[in-house]
Design a protein that fits this description.
By secondary structure, the chain is mainly alpha-helical. It contains 13 helices and four strands. The chain has one domain. Strands 1-4 form a two-stranded antiparallel ribbon. The chain has a two-stranded antiparallel sheet with strand order 2-3. Strand 2 and strand 3 form a beta hairpin. Helix 1 crosses helix 5, helix 3 crosses helix 8 and helix 11 packs antiparallel against helix 12.
Length: about 325
């Protein structure tokens, strides 16, 4: 596990410093894009609208298992091909690098805060549409700020802590499998007419994979906040009210840490989703709260990296 910790730390550092360079993306694309293309192909081939609910659910399950097995298998093959102590650690870290979202997460949310802070609603709505699924035209300033804060909180878990968690436990195969699971959920894990049956397995597997990471992320946010007791209290009280079994944990901790309310009613595809509030007695967030949230995010990343480094050092010494 010490080698896994060191590789994940290297990957985290590379992504925080460099992100995924545009030239590299133009040259080879991105692993999540490769996974997305495979999932889209499976969706077109197997998700037959004329098929029964049961048949579509089985087809979705088979696709999910096949994609996860393929991703884990490629990760395992690459891992076994790498030999030589620190060389393997370094190469694993480089391979894991594009599977994290440390820098891009910060950049996308900061892109919302800047125009919102100067009152440019059109630009703020455009920026928030890059990171959330709800209709940005229906969002006021508080709605935009809530959407950005919720995305930052939830995706810290999905895009960073969860991949690291599975990478530390199982190495490259673990993080590759997790990214396959999470990418499938983001593409087909919806309760819609097309995906209610076909995406059921992808959504349930993603729920299971995020049980521990989501709660760890909430704990991280609470520990690095200026009001840890309040963040923990709100998380414990409100996390279960969220429509997701996992997203409520980082989001409610984030809300308690910043003393803002999150979630609540929102619009998806012209339909009002009457969601309960997280930390509902608090005020609505604004642009300044997104900036404060980014500070909280950076502190959480530093704490996560510090804990990983201490575990790696203690493992190397013992």
């Amino acid at each position: 596990m010490t080698a896994h910790l060191a590789a994940m730390l290297l990957a985290m550092a590379l992504d925080a410093l460099l992100g995924w360079p545009r030239r590299l993306h133009a040259l080879i694309g991105h692993p999540v894009g490769w996974l997305g293309a495979l999932i889209a192909l499976g969706d077109r081939s197997l998700n037959r609208e004329g098929a029964s609910f049961a048949v579509r659910r089985i087809a979705g399950l088979l696709l999910a298992l096949a994609i996860i097995a393929l991703a884990a298998g490629v990760g395992l093959a690459l891992s076994q091909a790498l030999t030589g102590g620190w060389f393997k650690v370094v190469m694993t870290g480089i391979l894991v690098w594009p599977l994290l979202a440390v820098r891009s997460m910060h950049a996308h949310v900061a892109n919302v805060a800047k125009p919102l802070g100067r009152g440019d609603m059109a630009e703020a709505r455009y920026a928030v549409a890059m990171i959330v699924g709800r209709d940005p035209s229906q969002l006021d300033a508080a709605g935009i700020a809530r959407a950005a804060a919720e995305s930052l909180a939830e995706n810290t878990s999905d895009g960073i802590i969860a991949p690291l968690f599975w990478g530390i436990i199982f190495g490259l195969p673990g993080i590759a499998a997790y990214k396959a699971i999470n990418t499938m959920d983001s593409m087909i894990g919806y309760r819609t007419a097309r995906y209610g049956a076909f995406g059921w397995a992808a959504a349930r597997i993603d729920d299971l994979a995020n049980i521990v990471p989501a709660r760890l992320t909430g704990l991280l946010f609470a520990l690095v906040s200026t009001r840890p007791a309040r963040a923990l209290s709100v998380m414990w009280r409100d996390a279960g009210q969220h429509r997701s079994p996992n997203a409520g944990w980082p989001e409610s901790a984030f809300a308690g840490a910043l003393d803002i309310r999150l979630s609540g009613p929102r619009i998806y595809a012209d339909k009002v989703s009457d969601e309960p509030w997280l930390n509902g007695e608090a005020r609505d967030p604004g642009a300044v709260d997104i900036d404060l949230g980014l500070i909280l995010y950076r502190r959480a990343m530093m704490l996560a990296a510090s804990v990983m480094a201490l575990l790696a050092i203690s493992g190397a010494v013992s």
